[in-house]
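Changelog entry: the 2-nitropropane dioxygenase record was regenerated in this release. Current contents:
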Amino acid sequence: METPLTRLVGVRHPVVQTGMGWVAGPRLVSATANAGALGILASATMTVDRLREAIREVKSRTDAPFGVNLRADASDAGDRVRVMIAEGVRVASFALAPSPELITELKDAGVIVIPSIGARRHAEKVAAWGADAVIVQGGEGGGHTGDVATTVLLPQVVDAVDIPVVAAGGFFDGRGLVAALAYGAAGIALGTRFLLTSDSTVPDAVKARYLAATVRDVTVTRAVDGLPHRMLRTELVEALERSGRARALFQALRRAAGYRKLSGTSWLRMVQDGRALRHGRDLTWSQVLLAANTPMLLKASMVDGRTDLGVMASGQVAGLIDDLPSCADLVGRIMKEAAEVREGLTGS
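Regenerated structure tokens:
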């Protein structure tokens, strides 16, 4: 199936595996790429040196195009961009809008720039700055999310920009792909569905927790870091929502200490990051500390398997998923379903 997305990035199928921290590593990304979709490596939880190693590992596993997801606000974003350029990465994906200067640097080096956005005005802004495409995530998506449903946000953005639009939030099968194409999208981006594959390195016990979830077990809470965050309702989430400020601050300090030990980040740097996160937002200091070390809360579940101590970012589609196919089987199934749905609609 050829669309503006497949032509832009050089993949066979208009399907994107999103850059999920601690989940979208070399194994998942390369398996996705070999299946003909666009895999995106999550770099926010990696050092610059580890990012270089991870890129080379993906390249050793596949000759297909893939991307790297970056935090545009990271202090070392420039160093990461230079690693990507040097290693010949095809696509740069961003969780926040990159600066015009960063977009220009990447495009001058031949890298395709695809920011993720959650509002029409953000899509218009990055398109004017030269972004090659955008991933539009509606409120159904996992992780930090907005409150506008994909079915409302997607047509807004498609009508507002002249670059390829990839739809995210609520997609998991071929029916969703056809629906997104009908809205004018050039493809779909999936997070939770790729997390729940046999190629994902997430512990089996954690995958089982996702598979057992219903749509009512997926919630949006501000208790973790003060921002809307869609995730499975776990013991930690419930504890944070019940906690008073003193207890929440104690928990935040304990987890911040763990993050500092693992990452090598100084207390001063964590406070500086926290002050930046707090700017313009009504966050308590416990939320600031949790926001600064949210990667550790994700690692506890996604890497260590401790769902009692961590958070589990999740799209609402977790309540509709009941199997763990390989990436090849998943992408093949999506494309087969899409072909069948289109044939049923057109009668040909």
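The first strand starts at residue 15 and ends at 17.
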